[in-house]
Each structure stands twice: as structure tokens, then as C-alpha cells.
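Quick question, first post here. What does this chain look like in 3D?
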Amino acid sequence: MYAHFLEARRCEAEAEQVYNAIEKRYDQTEPLGTFMVRKALRTSDAVLQQQGWQMLRKVFPKGGERLPGTACTAPRRTVRPSPTSAEEPRPST
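> Answer (accepted):
Ran it through. C-alpha cells below.
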């Protein structure tokens, strides 16, 4: 998406214009809301963050919530990895 590209290039004013156009044309507040929350977290702007979460009420009715520490644990490794080609013995000729 063009707005993501602009945001990644730190062209935030232009990205915000694109997100605003998306909201007006498609009646979708989520892209602009997530942009506002990301920008607010980068700049420590509590007012902007609150505005962003308001736009995301449809998707996140309780606002932003923290995941419990156990929500992102990786499974235990049970399979031994296969050797790489550098570790495989070469056939004798």
C-alpha cells in the first residue's frame, strides 16, 4: 500500500493524507487509526494515541491490551535439524 511506503520513508504528512483519503473514500477508519497510534507511540503523543484508539473502537472495543507473557511462547524443539550441505560427508571416489 502506498501509505505504508510513505510512512516507511518517514514522509508522515503525505502518508496521513493518503490514510485520510482512504477513510473518506471507503469509510474505513482502521488504517488511519493504526497510523495515528503508531505515530503517537513514536512521538510519545498521548492525545494522538487516544484519537487513534477512538478510530479503532470497532475492531478493538476495549482499546489496546497487553498480551500475557505466556501468549507468545515458542514450542519446545523436538526435532533435530538436518545437517547442512557443508556438514554432510562427501562421497569417496
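The longest helix spans residues 12-26.
Residues 2-63 form one domain.
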